[in-house]
Amino acid sequence: MANVAKTVSWSGREQTEDEGEITPLLNGTSNAGDQPHRPCLSPNFFPIGRLRTVDLGEHNQEQETELTTTFTKEIPHNENLLSLKYESLDYDNSENQLFMEEERRINHATFRTVEVTRWVICGMIGIFTGLIACFIDIMVENLAGLKYQVIKDNIDRFTERGGLSFSLLLWVALNSAFVMVGSLLVAYIEPVAAGSGIPQIKCFLNGVKIPHVVRLKTLVIKVFGVILSVSGGLAVGKEGPMIHSGAVVAAGISQGRSTSLKRDFKIFEYFRRDTEKRDFVSAGAAAGVSAAFGAPVGGVLFSLEEGASFWNQLLTWRIFFASMISTFTLNFFLSIYNQKPGDLSNPGLINFGRFDTDENSYKYFELPIFILMGAIGGILGALFNALNHCLTTFRIRYIHRRFLQVIEAMLVTGVTATVAFVMIYYSTDCQPLREEAIDYPLQLFCADGQYNAMASAFFTTPEKSVRRLFHDPPGSFNPQTLGLFTLVYFFLACWTYGLTVSAGVFIPSLLLGAAWGRLVGILLTVVPNGVSWADPGKYALMGAAAQLGGIVRMTLSLTVIMVEATGNVTYGFPIMLVLITAKIVGDYFVEGLYDLHIKLQSVPFLGWEAPVTSHSLTAREVMSVPVVYLRRREKVGIIVDVLSETSSNHNGFPVVENTVDGSQPSRLCGLILRSQLIVLLKHKVFVERENLSLIYRQLKLKDFRDAYPRFPPIQSIHVSQDERECQMDLSEFMNPTPYTVPQEASLPRVFKLFRALGLRHLVVVDSHNRVAGLVTRKDLARYRIGKNGLEELDLAQT
Amino acid sequence: MANVAKTVSWSGREQTEDEGEITPLLNGTSNAGDQPHRPCLSPNFFPIGRLRTVDLGEHNQEQETELTTTFTKEIPHNENLLSLKYESLDYDNSENQLFMEEERRINHATFRTVEVTRWVICGMIGIFTGLIACFIDIMVENLAGLKYQVIKDNIDRFTERGGLSFSLLLWVALNSAFVMVGSLLVAYIEPVAAGSGIPQIKCFLNGVKIPHVVRLKTLVIKVFGVILSVSGGLAVGKEGPMIHSGAVVAAGISQGRSTSLKRDFKIFEYFRRDTEKRDFVSAGAAAGVSAAFGAPVGGVLFSLEEGASFWNQLLTWRIFFASMISTFTLNFFLSIYNQKPGDLSNPGLINFGRFDTDENSYKYFELPIFILMGAIGGILGALFNALNHCLTTFRIRYIHRRFLQVIEAMLVTGVTATVAFVMIYYSTDCQPLREEAIDYPLQLFCADGQYNAMASAFFTTPEKSVRRLFHDPPGSFNPQTLGLFTLVYFFLACWTYGLTVSAGVFIPSLLLGAAWGRLVGILLTVVPNGVSWADPGKYALMGAAAQLGGIVRMTLSLTVIMVEATGNVTYGFPIMLVLITAKIVGDYFVEGLYDLHIKLQSVPFLGWEAPVTSHSLTAREVMSVPVVYLRRREKVGIIVDVLSETSSNHNGFPVVENTVDGSQPSRLCGLILRSQLIVLLKHKVFVERENLSLIYRQLKLKDFRDAYPRFPPIQSIHVSQDERECQMDLSEFMNPTPYTVPQEASLPRVFKLFRALGLRHLVVVDSHNRVAGLVTRKDLARYRIGKNGLEELDLAQT
Questions:
Q1: Taking every annotated instance into account, which residue ranges of this chain make up the domain CBS (chains A, B) (predicted)?
Q2: Which of B244, B238, B262 lies closest to B205 in space, CA to CA?
Q3: Which of B538, B746, B747 to mutate to test the interface with A (most CBs of A within 10 A)?
Q4: Closest B-chain CA to A112
Q5: Mean pLDDT, range A293-301, rounded to an integer
Q6: Judged by CB atoms within 8 Å, which residues 105-134 of B form the interface with A?
Q7: Is A753 in Cβ contact with B752 (below 8 Å)?
Q8: What is the mean pLDDT of residues B161-184?
Q9: Chain B interface includes A576 (CB < 8 A)
Q10: CA distance B106 to B108
Q11: Residue of A568, A572, A667 lying closest to B767 (CB–CB)
């Protein structure tokens, strides 16, 4: 450790380097003051032991690159990789002089205005989210209604005179057409709109920036994609995507502008930073849940469970407000649309319908049955997740061309329709038509006045099937029908999740669970003869909870969502039991679906706590070294070179004191972000040697905010050779008080600080307050509990 | 600032000090290495500018002092004071070598055992809390039943032949007897058991250690106190105290021992630290809410809203489990007691009864009415709080003797009974007896087959009155009865809260609100003739929510509690609206009741965020200086003197590096707690000059845990003159990586770190990592937004 790096110039032309003998200069105290410190060291010259030694944490420029349209091609299929392409959000305000000056100007009255504005924004988030939900609902109802009517007429015509294969063709063709359009939109215009978006929002709230995820374009594609895929008869729901939609609405409204539309309304400029944006996105996600399930409290809990690390009462209350407004808006407009204004019976996209509690209340001895159902749900959920995991890996490897994705989506659509048709065709489960109108009763080969029961599960939107399974009187479904339906639908739903269409997995899970739950209920009435308490609807509800819990593994929030969607709290306790069992059983086998997908995309997702056995690691072992740092007063040329160097792609740089003679070790005095440097370069905030001041007074916080969040790349900024010789004084723009940890701090300690405060960069210092390294999200996310104890993931550029 | 402190010896005998010229030595960089640093400086010798400069943050020994029995005498009545007598809990583990060695020994399997143990403990917390609730309920029912039966018989007898004043006397005497015993218990045995305990639990979860608050003795007094005060007919409820009871149960069980009973079960030793204890106390409080209201989700939210700063999914799920078990246990045993096993209709101590939703669902145009009711609730709540605030100030000043407190409680009891009697006596509101039996219908002067309606509100436990107001059919109460009842009960309840009895304010608030809410409902049916939608029960519910919200100002958790207690979610939306309005309106006038009481006790309570206008303050201005610090290898005599010095009463001491020649400034290398030093001294972990090692190997983490939480005072430890000359090596016991902030960090930044991580001591360092000061809870809590912007509270020893 006595080797000393020679002077390395950043111009990239005149490197004179004693290769192979380079020491990580800043590592520890062993290099105390015996060499001239240079601000930047080319990482290329360091021995690459592990990948981590050249890992510089956060990758790439802060502007969103346009790589993501080819997104699916590049997903590493090795689960032990951690991708470097994801950037972090920064929930720690850069408290530089500009920021502090603004904050100090804020008196109590101004603050009140800001606070009221936040409430107004939350109200708007609620209203728009509710309106979007309303739009989706009405569109789906009309499109799907039209489709089913056409097919039903066709089937009715051909049932008598034979030739039902034409009907099948028509069905397949119509569905494929819908899905094709939906899939084309997603695959070619905005791939990030695929799926439910819940994993993406989870990541966002966790602090990972997924490119494009909160853009207006994504929202538009998502909304139309959902309408088309649900209308196209896939085994999907429109509820999950509402959460994503709400989040986009929130991100859009709170920033007061749309970069896609190139409109800046010049409002809400105060909120143009990650901290505020995250809070609003939480509110948006909650509003989405609320509109999807009519569950405002569940929405709040979802946001907190998935995102919040720090619980703030005022924030929670605002989130709740947004949720409330969202469900109310949906309810209000849907009741008008349904021509029952003031009815208020449509709080969410899915409504489980009213369970008549007096009759159906449960008994003690049913609790073990419910627990058993929870276990079944856990096992089935784990199976679902494991299968989908294999499928997704396959997709990542082989189906990464866009047209293949579209074709796969159409294939699944065709198979779904065909399977449904065949099952309806061969079903002999005829039920008498009752008063409550079934929307599209298919008579087929049943006697007059009867309808095909299988069709009532397959030949309608999944939401309606769920409600029918919950509420149709005992005897509406044959056990055989339910069993067959469960089996087939399980594989269909599993195949469907992960297709390149916008769609959610909530409703298929509920439907699946409701089917086998109802089956359990029926079996209970049949096997011990004449049991009165085993209402099939109740068991359908428990099955639905078990299956959904087994797949997504949400906990408190899902309980509340189910209770709110059910409309009464009587079943709260059994639902909790079911969910807790499903989670424990499911977690024994495999993770939740969303977590699996997050892992498959190698996202640096931070859990709630550091891995339990990680106490033996310290910041020294975890941190990225060597770290590129800058001096308080730095040459412009060096800054440009640091930013241009692609291998040194941290987004934050510690700033150290300039020393008079260069012989003293340099102490940490701040932290500056790549984005801030870019704005500084763009505005030419340079200081000539003779002319030390004045110029940079003109730069305002507004300049930084205007550039947020898509900062220009360094390549777009021209710096002349003369300018390169200028100096730049970073004092005013750097964060002078970054959080630091000593090198000896244990990983759990570092993790706790990082996670609780939502940091992006955490500077590791030695006992003399000199920069020793930098901890970023990836350095922490790469430790994971595996089968053999603590595992270390590799980092990959893909 | 060029003055230099001369050498100060801590023996206390040979101080040679240049008085009046002492500089806060460690303040900033101005003292760089130009004087010999001494570890400890007597604060007596520093100029006392503001009180803060000698404030040494946390006061007194860590063991709980026995001062608190005289608690009520000493409460300062100046609201601009912050008491120094409260200590902080430390939610940051001291990661010293012993701790790290233990943690490193924990492999995945051991961790799983620990995790399972946590679940088992939560289950036990739920069971015991449920059992306590069950016990309270049954006792109250029997005692109150007996009392009401005796009085009813007496009244019935005397109604005919005159002489009802005997009945009044009997009533007053019986009630006073109950309350006297309850009040004596509280006043003379455990004053901290007074009231609902919710403010105390709020403080505990916030990180403030209120003496005696989670002791077994407190629990016993609380339980019997509640039974007696409710049976004694005061305007109180038994729900609030359940929260406190649950918290005590949790603290007791999780520690696996009772210091009061001197029993150590030698289990759960791993959990003997503040971090773990806090988590279990959260679960206990949630279990208490759950048992009180049958609201498991509401309980979880209560705990989170009041306590958690860091949301952890696993923890939340455990809290939920405890809540669930608690309400289930209560339900199970109460249904057996009520001889309807399996009925499951008693999830909580109060049950609002089933609202039949189909009939009573609300209409759009009722929402503005509800909002108006919320505003009324906010105003009435603010009035209630303001009156109670004056009353409490009066009590603090004048009623601080125990016998006066008992007499006041009896006086209130007598007045309550008398007022009730007079109102019943003069009431002419006779209602026909219906099928549903009223427990103790008083006929008085009504015709046969009728009963006195005023008596049905006054002559029963408040819980039953609430249910009657919610569910009795329209016409059961006269508007005059309700109006008069509201007026009288308002003042009675306000007078009652704060008496030296164990009792809660939830039920009186609900009753009050239900009364005026029902009145609003009746007026709505009367004024616009023949309105069908204005069901009085619905309006009673909204009034109850409004009034309770206006008084306690809880937000999300209260909404969920109300919804869960109501048993269906239909009224969720209007309840939210009502609560949000009540909070906004109420906050405009005065704070919530609990917050007022916390303030009146000068507790250093930390809000969610730093005051909004505090960006201009930095750590340098906020921190305590000078701070007493120790050297890594320190003389035993100095340590004893530091601990004995009452004016230097911090509970944590920064540890600095020993320097060879004493001329170099000393760098921070750790933090050691007073409690740790005391254990070290007690075990004589000394190092002779010649014999540097070996001895302290024998000290285990267990020794520290056994002493937790009541560490002996320093006075009880004898250190001989020879031992004073020994050295003590703190390296192994200090926390080597305490969190630090630079002096320039803004107050909000310091606050955020402190609050999010639940710290107790935060070391402020200069740019050379030298100790500059120490920030404790009091340094942060003393800044508050007042009428004129940022206010600074004074610190007081009382």
A1: 734-792
A2: B244
A3: B746
A4: B612
A5: 89
A6: 106-108, 111
A7: no
A8: 89
A9: yes
A10: 7
A11: A667
pLDDT in tens, B446-477: 777 788 877 777 788 888 888 888 888 877 78
B226, B237 Cβ separation under 8 angstroms: no
Q: Is the pLDDT of residue A370 over 70?
A: yes
B-chain CB neighbours of A311 within 8 Å are: 304-305, 308-311
pLDDT average, residue stretch B496-524: 91
In a 13 Å sphere around the CA of A322, the CA atoms on its Cβ side amount to 37
pLDDT at B413 over 90: yes
In chain A, which residues have their Cβ closer than 8 Å to the Cβ of B361? Answer: 344
Question: In this structure, how many other beta carbons lie within 10 angstroms of the beta carbon of residue B728?
Answer: 25
CA pair distance B276, B115, nearest whole angstrom: 12
Q: Is residue A30 scored above 70 in pLDDT? A: no
Name which of A435-439, A553-557, B92-96, B275-279 the model is least confident about.
A435-439
Beta partners for residue A789, in sequence order: A786
- Which residue in A has a C-alpha nearest to residue B328's C-alpha? A573
* CB-CB under 8 Å, B297 with A572: yes
Structure tokens at A553: 């593994």
Which residue segments constitute the domains of chain A, with CATH numbers given? Answer: 43-86+617-796 (3.10.580.10), 119-161+192-337 (1.10.3080.10), 357-600 (1.10.3080.10)
> A480 versus A17: which is more confidently predicted?
A480
> What is the pTM for the complete model shown?
0.86
| Separation CA B420–CA A613 (nearest Å) | 64
Higher model confidence: residue B569 or residue B70?
A: B569
CA-nearest of B25, B94, B48, B43 to B642 is B43
Percent of chain B with pLDDT over 70: 83
Task: Please state, as a whole number, how many other Cβ atoms lie within 10 Å of the Cβ of residue B171.
Answer: 24
Across B267-275, average pLDDT = 81
Which chain A residue is nearest to residue B567, measuring alpha carbons?
A: A569
DSSP conformation letters of B211-271: TTTT-HHHHHHHHHHHHHHHHTT-S-BSSHHHHHHHHHHHHHHHHTEETTTTEE----GGG
Run of H or E including B431: strand B430-432
Identify the residue among B556, B584, B732 best suited for mutation to test binding to A, counting A beta carbons within 10 A and taking the highest.
Answer: B556
Q: Chain B partners of A327 at a C-beta cutoff of 8 Å?
A: 573
Residue of A nearest to B332 (CA): A364
Q: What are the CA-CA distances from residue B721 to residues B192, B637, B695 (Å)? A: 41, 8, 19
3-state secondary structure of A638: helix
